[in-house]
Amino acid sequence: xxxxxxxxxxxxxxxxxxxxxxxxxxxxxxxxxxxxxxxxxxxxxxxxxxxxxxxxxxxxxxxxxxxxxxxxxxxxxxxxxxxxxxxxxxxxxxxxxx
Length: 98
Prior knowledge:
The chain is an all-alpha fold. The chain is 65% helix and 0% strand.
């Protein structure tokens, strides 16, 4: 398991380009997750897919809905925390929105 992959993928998403061969590095783990050869606890799997989809959208230009990424990221948390975490995230982006 490439433990640096998620952090590298986020760096690439922020930069808007694949900085470290992320696309190829994700091929095996994503295929293994889809084939059930690799399993994570649900929150970890949601986070893994959220980061992968964020990378795919912002580094490769794949047509992935923003809300899919947001919902995957929020699914990492208990449902009772989702609204407050989303509100805080929006406030961090636009302090006038909170």
